[in-house]
Design a protein that fits this description.
The chain is mostly helical. It is built from three helices and no strands.
C-alpha cells in the first residue's frame, strides 16, 4: 500500500476513535473503557507518525545512492527528535 494511503487510513481510524471517545464520555462510560480507547487512539497516532517517518527517510534522505555524512546526520537528528518525544514502535 502506498505510504500516503496508509497514513490517511491510519488517521481516519484515529479520527473514528476520537469520535468514539467523545461518545463514551457523553454516555458516562467507565474510566477503564475510556482509557483503553484513549490509549488506542494515541497508539494510532504514533503508528501514523512512524509511517510518515519511514516515508521521510526513504524519500528525502536515503534515496541518494551515495549517502553522505550530512545525510546520515539528518537521519540521526530525525531519530533523536522522534525518541525525544517518546514515540515507540509496537
Amino acid at each position: 500500500m502506498e505510504p500516503d494511503k496508509k497514513l490517511q487510513d491510519r488517521l481516519a481510524r484515529v479520527e473514528g476513535q476520537v469520535r468514539g471517545l467523545r461518545k463514551m464520555l457523553e454516555e458516562r462510560r467507565g474510566c477503564e473503557d475510556v482509557l483503553n480507547q484513549l490509549l488506542a487512539a494515541r497508539s494510532g497516532l504514533e503508528q501514523a507518525g512512524l509511517v510518515l517517518l519511514e516515508k521521510h527517510l526513504s524519500e528525502c534522505i536515503l534515496s541518494d545512492p551515495m549517502i553522505s555524512q550530512e545525510s546520515l546526520e539528518k537521519v540521526r537528528d530525525t531519530l533523536r527528535l522522534w525518541v525525544k518525544h517518546g514515540v515507540v514502535a509496537e
